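Regression test case RT-17, inverse folding.

Input:
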């Protein structure tokens, strides 16, 4: 009993230190808690959360896995593990398997209440989203909303999925409701700004994006805007900087600049509305060896999308060059694995 009291006292001290921003002190208290109870699930999970916040992802995963092994019914550790697998490690298939296990009713695991069930559906939805199964992700985030009620995070994610599907007006309704539920959600405000831009409300869009930047400048930088001449010059230089042997292949392929993908391209060809560029046409590896570039072949840069992913003018110029090379690579018949291998993915 004495060790148990010591364990919970150390956890309380760790929580107080963590809330005060004293991470090293919090970790020290959790170490003390584990001396009292070496298999304390709460202490291992707490260490995992602190290490995760500090960017020590592999160590965090190890601690969270220890927590879930120490007490398989400790649902918080399982949820943390699923989210870490999705957001930090990109192990979406593994996260989906974990989510399915949590919903399976296995006796060694805790039976999820409605709130936990909703969170599992939401995490599985995010995993499917990153695997490009947008319809599956939409179905599951809606299940999360039905299980938990009107939750701003779930509405915001539903709006984000609808935006990616090109269903901009539906996305707007969800995101506006999400912002009403949580006015401080930079994620919801930013994606509302993206939707407003696509439905032609540019002033409202700009205000929303500025608001998102004020709430979370690290994740939502302001767009880098340059004039037409500077943008076209950067695009032309990107082509000019290609090796001569490649320039000869693409000299008759037009390089176009649009603000963003057309609605038909998003809805009918499953192109993300945030894509930076695209090659349209027949790759040279599929055309006759002596064939010239056909009239349909073209590379398109999406200016507003490129401007949003950069923080400085220099970054924008560099990203234009990378995007041009990437799409020229597609014209030459390279797939995503080839492009990643040569640093253009």
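Golden output:
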């Amino acid at each position: 009993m004495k060790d148990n009291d010591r364990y919970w006292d150390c956890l309380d001290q760790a929580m107080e230190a963590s809330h005060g921003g004293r991470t090293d002190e919090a970790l020290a208290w959790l170490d003390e808690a584990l001396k009292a109870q070496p298999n304390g699930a709460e202490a291992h999970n707490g260490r995992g959360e602190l290490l995760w916040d500090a960017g020590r992802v592999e160590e965090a995963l190890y601690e969270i896995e220890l927590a879930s092994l120490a007490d398989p019914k400790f649902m918080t550790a399982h949820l943390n593990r699923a989210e870490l697998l999705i957001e930090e490690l990109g192990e979406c298939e593994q996260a989906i398997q974990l989510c399915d296990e949590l919903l399976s009713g296995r006796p060694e695991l805790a039976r999820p209440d409605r709130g936990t069930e909703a969170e599992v559906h939401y995490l599985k939805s995010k995993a499917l989203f990153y695997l490009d199964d947008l319809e599956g992700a939409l179905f599951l985030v809606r299940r999360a909303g039905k299980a938990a009620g009107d939750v701003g995070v779930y509405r915001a994610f539903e709006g984000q999925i609808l935006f990616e599907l090109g269903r901009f007006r539906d996305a707007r309704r969800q995101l506006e409701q999400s912002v009403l539920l949580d006015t401080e959600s930079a994620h919801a405000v930013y994606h509302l700004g993206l939707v407003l831009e696509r439905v032609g409300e540019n002033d409202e869009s700009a205000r929303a994006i500025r608001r998102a930047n004020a709430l979370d400048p690290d994740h939502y930088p302001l767009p880098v805007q340059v004039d037409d001449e500077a943008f076209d010059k950067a695009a032309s230089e990107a082509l000019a900087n290609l090796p001569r042997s490649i320039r000869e292949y693409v000299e008759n392929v037009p390089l176009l600049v649009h603000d963003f993908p057309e609605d038909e391209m998003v809805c009918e060809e499953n192109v993300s509305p945030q894509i930076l560029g695209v090659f349209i046409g027949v790759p040279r590896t599929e055309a006759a060896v002596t064939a010239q570039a056909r009239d349909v072949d073209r590379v398109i840069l999406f200016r507003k999308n490129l401007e949003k992913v950069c923080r400085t003018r220099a970054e924008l110029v560099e990203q234009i060059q990378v995007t041009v090379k990437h799409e020229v690579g597609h014209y030459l018949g390279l797939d995503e694995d080839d492009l990643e291998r040569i640093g253009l993915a």
